[in-house]
Amino acid sequence: xxxxxxxxxxxxxxxxxxxxxxxxxxxxxxxxxxxxxxxxxxxxxxxxxxxxxxxxxxxxxxxxxxxxxxxxxxxxxxxxxxxxxxxxxxxxxxxxxxxxxxxxxxxxxxxxxxxxx
Length: 117
Prior knowledge:
The chain is mainly beta. It is built from no helices and ten strands. The relative contact order is 0.32.
């Protein structure tokens, strides 16, 4: 079945960097655009960045443009998110999935990112 395993989160000071990784399985990874989503406490989950099937096109929400970089390795079924210049507002649980998941889409456990001094 479809499975996502996110990793790489942690506690980082403002201005710091982290790289998140997602291992996907159970479907033909290279056939799908993919995205990173996040959910902060008390807020709805939001799409942060997305990447096309072949990795040539990317899009970012305005709040992370110029700081986050999404990439993928279709040979390894892996999705990455490089996050620089982190801010306290980036604190959230981060998930990988398709950009527009249905209500019944499987989600991984996510990885916690905490930006705090």
